[in-house]
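User: tokens in, sequence out, please.
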């Protein structure tokens, strides 16, 4: 198990912007040590020849032909706009 001291736990808590009372630093350091020990244990697993996974069930994504179109539905698209003018989205001016 990796040894983490209270000072390291204090630094990690500060970096994470977490307020940790002084009396909780020692138990937090022990917990960090157990977590790092588990990670070290994972490094011992032989993963040679194992394909990386993006999910637990193998599946292929549905694909469609990539075709450039004009969209052909500006009225339907602009219906979602809070404000539209002359066939375009209208937005407030942000630069003077």
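Assistant: Sequence out:
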């Amino acid at each position: 198990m990796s040894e983490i001291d209270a000072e390291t736990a204090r630094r990690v808590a500060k970096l994470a912007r977490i307020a940790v009372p002084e009396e909780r630093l020692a138990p937090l350091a022990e917990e960090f040590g157990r977590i790092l020990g588990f990670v070290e244990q994972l490094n011992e697993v032989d993963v040679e020849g194992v394909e990386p996974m993006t999910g637990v069930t193998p599946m292929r994504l549905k694909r469609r032909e990539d075709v450039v179109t004009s969209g052909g539905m500006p009225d339907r698209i602009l219906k979602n706009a809070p404000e539209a003018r002359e066939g375009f989205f209208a937005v407030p001016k942000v630069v003077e």
